[in-house]
Specification:
single chain, mainly alpha
């Protein structure tokens, strides 16, 4: 049980492990371990053996490897929209050991980004990629990046693509949609 104060009971006895694994238990004697005084179980003052569980305001996503969520968990960003559906599916269907689990979570993050951009646009406060990327903070975006020993120099060529590509693609799709609507209305 990973959430209790006691050490978990080993499944095999020390004698079984010593017989199976050469060298196992070489530091089993506390006299052989220089860190032994720090490993003593001292009273921590905790009044509980298992912490009080936080109330779930909605069914939290949880790994299929665990029986329940941790006693305390984050609630700042509840799953919402299509990205929330993707996240819940990733947790419900795939183990954390599967690449599909993590790829779905990455896809959900990208979908959440698009959902947030559309939501901001509908609220009349669209994203401003020029100011939000911090490019204006640099006195000369090109001169500041050339000949410097910056740690982020490896991806400078990709920065304009990463920042501008979603906006160019979104603008192209919007333009195509409007043009298709206009053509359909004209007959």
């Amino acid at each position: 049980m990973p959430y209790t104060a006691e050490k978990p009971t080993p499944r095999e006895t020390p004698e079984q492990l010593r017989a199976r694994i050469p060298g196992w238990g070489a530091d089993l004697d506390p006299a052989d371990r220089p860190s032994y005084p720090k490993e003593q179980f001292l009273p921590t003052g905790a009044h509980w053996d298992f912490p009080e569980r936080q109330v779930e305001k909605w069914p939290r996503e949880r790994s299929i490897e665990h029986a329940f969520v941790t006693p305390v968990f984050g609630t700042s960003t509840p799953p919402k929209g299509l990205s929330g559906v993707i996240r819940k599916y990733a947790y419900r269907r795939f183990s954390e050991a599967r690449a599909a689990h993590w790829l779905l979570l990455i896809a959900a993050d990208r979908v959440d980004t698009a959902e947030s951009a559309v939501t901001a646009l509908l609220r009349g406060k669209p994203d401003n990629p020029v100011t939000e990327t911090g490019i204006l903070a640099e006195s000369s975006p090109v001169a500041d990046r050339v000949g410097q020993q910056r740690a982020d120099a490896g991806h400078h060529a990709l920065d304009p693509v990463i920042v501008a590509a979603p906006w160019v693609i979104g603008g192209g799709l919007a333009f195509s949609a409007v043009r298709a609507l206009v053509r359909r209305r004209r007959g």
